[in-house]
Design brief:
Hemocyanin, N-terminal domain; single chain; about 575 residues; alpha/beta; Rossmann fold
Length: about 575
Amino acid sequence: MIFTIKQEPATAHRYLAAHVKGAELLMNPSTNKGTAFTNAERDELDLHGLIPPAISTLEQQLQRVYDAFQAKAGNLEKHIYLSSLQDRNETLFFRLLSEHIEEMMPIVYTPTVGEVCQRFSHIYRRARGLYVSYDQRHHLERILKDFPNPHPAVIVVTDGQRILGLGDQGAGGMGIPIGKLCLYTLCGGVAPYGALPIMLDVGTDNEERLADPLYLGLRQKRVPGHAYQKFVDDFVAAVMKVFPGVLLQWEDFYKGNAIKQLARFRDRLCTFNDDIQGTAGVVVAGIFAGLRISGQRLRDQRVLFAGAGAAAHGIADLIVSALQEDGLGLAEARQRIWTVDSQGLVTRDRHELEDFKATYARDPGELLSYTCANRSHVTLAETILNARPTILLGTSATPGTFTEEVVRAMAAVNQRPMIFPLSNPTSCCECRAEDAIRWSDGRAIVATGSPFAPVVFNGHTFRIGQGNNAYIFPGIGLGATAGGLRRISDGMFLAGAKALAAKVTEADLAASAVYPEVRRIRECSLAVACAAIRQGVAEGLAEVSILENLEARVQEAMWVPEYLPMRYEPAD
C-alpha cells in the first residue's frame, strides 16, 4: 500500500501519510480525494494541474455522484457506475452508499449481483482482488504476494460453482466476493484496503460460458475430485503462510464442497462459510424476533425446510443448538426438523442419503399415520397438514415452491405461521411477500431473502424484513479482526443471532418486521461483533483482556468513510 494512517503524538489528530505524490496518488482509490484535496495538500503532494482548481466539499461530491447514479438506466448500469466510483475513490463510494443504503445495497449486492455474475465477462472494467487459476497451482504463494496489501484482514473466496440460486458461473462468480467485501465495509466497518476477494478458477461446466468468446475464465470443464481438493488444500496452506491471522470466508461453493471445506479447515485457521453459518445466524435471529410476535417459545416450534442444500444444513444445525439451549435433548431437537426436496419428504429409507439429509430424515414408519396420496412422495403441502410445522423455510432456489395451497396449509394449522421464502435473487424466491400475506389472510410472519416493498393488506402495512446475511457476517468479521478471534465457532453465530434479534424494536414488530431497518445495520454489526467476541472469550478463542471497554474498542476499530488530512512522508 502507498499510505499509512497515523496519529499525532499526544493528540487525537489522525492523518494519512502518503508515500507517493502526484498522479500515482490519484490512481489509488484508497488515497484519492478527487477535487476535495485542499490547497495545502495540493502543494505538498504535487497535485496542482492534475485536478480542476475548484475545491469541493464531500457533500458537493456526494451530490455530483448521486446525480450521476440516478441518471443511469436500470440496476445493472447503476451497478457499473458504482463499481467505477469504487475504483477511483473508495471513501466517496462508501459515503454515498451509507447515505443511501436502502436504495443502493440491492444494487451492489443481491439481487443485482446475480445479473452482474452472469454478465461479468461482458461488463468487466478493472481488476479487483486476485484470480487464482488451476493452471497457476504451483505458484500460489507468489500470486498471493501480488496483492498490494501484505496484511489483509478478510478474504472472501469462491470457486463460482453455486452462485446464489443461479448455479455455475465460473469466473463470473468473482462478483460475489467483491460484493460481500463491499458489505463488510459498508455494514461492518472493516476497512476497504484490508479486503481481499479471491476467485479460485478451476474451470466451469456452464456450456453458455464456455461458448462465450468473451469469457474471462479458464476455458475448460471443472477440475474434479482429488485434483480439485489438492488445489484447495494448497491454496489454504498458502494463505496460512502468506497471510497468517487473516479471516477466510468461503462463499457460494457447491453444497457438498461447502460442507466439506468448512469441516476440513475450521479448526486450522480463522474461517467460516457464510452460506452455511451466516445464513443460519440471520434466519435464527428472524425466528427469535418472530416468536415475540407469536408469543410462543422456541422449544415448541416445528420447522419444515423446502430445500435441503448447504443453507438448510447450517440453519437446521443452529436451530437444533438453540433448541438445546431451551431445554431439549439433541435427539428431541432434531425431531423438530422436517426436510422436503425435489423427491418429497426426506425419509431414512432412501438410498445413498447425504449426511445432512440423513441427520434430519424422518422414520418411514411415521408416514403410516399421514394422510397423503403417495407415501413414497409426500408433497410439501401434505407434509404441512400432517407434521403441522410452525415455521416454513424456503432454501430451494425454486420459484413458486410456496404455492397458494402451501401457504394456506400453513395458515390452517397455525394462528401466526412463520413463512420465510429465503432464496435469492428475487427470480429464485419461493413466493412473493405479498402472496404469503394475502394467502394467509394477513396472519403470516414473513421474511424474505431478497428485498420486497411493504405490503398493504386489510388496512395494515407489513414491512417485509429481509433475511440478509449482511446483518450477521460483517459483524462476525468485525469481531474477528477487532477482537483477535483465533477461530470462528457456531456458538458465535448463535450469540450473534441473539444480539441481532435484540435490535428488533417494538416498532419493527408492530410493522410485522422481524429484522431492523437496513439504515441501522452498522449498529447491528457492532452488537453482533461484541457478542461474537464475548462468546470467543467464553470458548477460549480470544483473550479475556479484550472485554475491557469492549464496545468502545470495537467502535473505534470501525472504519468510517470520511477524508483525513494527508501529508507526504517518504517511504522508509
